[in-house]
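User: My instructor asked us to take a sequence, write out its structure as tokens, and then describe one feature of it. I'm not sure where to start. Here is the sequence I was given:
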Amino acid sequence: MIFNKHFGILAAFSLGMVLPHSGFAQAPTPPAKTESTQAMSMTDGEVRKVDQENGKVTIKHGEIKHLDMPGMTMVFTAKDKALLTNVKAGDKVKFMVVNEGGKMVVTDIQATKP
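Assistant: Let's start with the prediction itself. The structure tokens for your sequence are:
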């Protein structure tokens, strides 16, 4: 009987050396992607209308990847009205847009060379 008792302790100890322990440190799980962790980039578009007085611009745009938004035509608010002084209807542009509390805001817009 003593043999079985010692053998059981030895076997349990040996298994502990082979099998991982839950107490060991594990590699951290990468955080889920959120808008703030995804790389933001400029989006291609074409200006359809500029409303300088109200700080709004209508842009037909391609996919806005960092916002997971498909291409469409929509009205954006400019973060600063001055952003709209260098663009006009028909201009091909690259622009940056962010979601500020559900409102799509253009923070940068640049006419591209034809």
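For the description part of your assignment, you could build on this observation: Strands lie at 43-51, 56-61, 72-78, 92-100, 103-111. Try explaining in your own words what that tells you about the chain.
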